[in-house]
Amino acid sequence: LQINAVTLRDAEDRVSGAVLVFHDLTQVRKLESARQEFVANVSHELRTPLSLIKGAVEMLIDGQERTEEASGRLLKIVDRHANRLGLLIDDLLLLAQLDSGRVRLNLQTVSARTLVREVEDDLGARAAARRIELRNEVPEEFLVRADADRVRQVFFNLIDNALKYGRDGGKVQIAARAHAERIEFTVRDDGPGVPPAALARVFERFYRVDRARAREQGGTGLGLAIVKHVVQAHGGAVRCESVVGRGAAFVFSLPRANATAAD
Ligand code: ADP
C-alpha cells in the first residue's frame, strides 16, 4: 500500500486539514513480478538450446571428433536446437502481437472440418509413427466465424500436444457440438492426462507438468498460451478436462457462422 499525504492550510498558514491518498499496489506489483518471471523464463528457454549449439560447435572446432559419423551427430544437434530456437522466437513474436492487440482477425466463414483435415495432413506422419489413430469427427456442415490461419494453429497446437503426450497405439478424437451461437470443439487423447492442480495452469506461458519430459518432446511451452489467446480473441473460452490416467480433453468454443435462434 502506498500512501501520499498533503496538508491543507488556511489563509493564516495554519494547518486546517489533510488529504490522504491510498494506492493499492497489489495489482501493479503482481503484474511487475509476472513480467519479471516471464523475462527470466524467456532467457532460460533461449539459453538452453543456445548452449547446446555452442557446445556442439566448440567440439567441431576443436576437431576432436574426427570421424564423419561423430561430426554428423554434432551437426544434427546444431540443426535440431537451431530449429527449436526458431520455433520459440516465432511463438514469442506471435504472443507479443496477440498481447498488444495488434493482431487483426481476418474473420470469415470457415469449415472447421477442413481446418482439422489440413492439420491431419501436417501431422499424419507423426501420428502414424506412434500408431495413433486420428479421428476427425467434426461434421461437414459446422461453420465458424473465425480467422482460418489462427484457428488452424489452435487445432494444430492441441492435436500436436495430443500426439506428443498421448499413448502409443492410442487414439486422438476431434469432436464438435453445435449450440445456438457457438460451436464447442473437443480434442481428446487417451494419454496420462493432466493432474487437477495443473488444469488451469497449463495455459500459462512456460508452465509444464513435467519439465524434462516436455522439453524432450521439443515443445516451446507456449502452445497452450497461444491457444488461449486466439480463442479469447474470438470471444470464446478454453478449458482442460482430465482424469489422470484416462487422458486429457481440451474444450474450446468459437462463434458459429450460421447461428440459429434455437439451441
Ligand atoms: P509444451 O511445448 O510444453 O507442450 P504447451 O503450452 O503446449 O507447451 O503445454 C503445456 C504443458 O501442458 C505441457 O508441457 C504438458 O505438461 C501439458 N499438456 C499439454 N497437452 C497435454 C496433453 N494432451 N496431455 C497431457 N499433458 C498435456
From TrEMBL:
Catalytic function, reaction form: ATP + protein L-histidine = ADP + protein N-phospho-L-histidine
Sorted UniProt keywords: Kinase, Membrane, Phosphoprotein, Transferase, Two-component regulatory system
Known EC number: 2.7.13.3
Record GO biological process: cellular response to phosphate starvation
Keyword hit for tRNA processing: no
Residues annotated as domain Histidine kinase: 41-258
Organism: Horticoccus luteus
Protein name: histidine kinase
Any GO CC annotation of this UniProt entry: plasma membrane
Domain of life the protein comes from: Bacteria
Molecular function per GO: phosphoprotein phosphatase activity; phosphorelay sensor kinase activity
